[in-house]
Amino acid sequence: MVRQGTLGDKAMFENAMVRAQELADGYEYRDALRREAVEAHAPEWLEETIKYRDLDELYNALGEDLPAILFKAGECTSDEEPFSKTLYDVIWDNHFEQVIEYVEGIFDDVLADQVDFGYDH
Q: Global pTM?
């Protein structure tokens, strides 16, 4: 025998749906703030990485594309503009998403290290 829903069941279901939407909106807002913070820090990360010539970090972010990027930046460098500025422009203009994804991973690692799960180490 199938039980007929009551008005209380319907109200409880509607409340649960409203709460689920509020949670989803909260997660979307949190993710948007996180993405905004990543996008704000990514240019600084790239600038510092180039400044200190950290090719390992650049390779981690750009992968197999790095040699071609370096070659293209070398071809585009002029006497008036330093190689580091040209390299930054080439990477940012053509590989923005890869840099963002890598910096996002750094943020995730930092945030994970800050979370205390209450375990004794």
A: 0.71
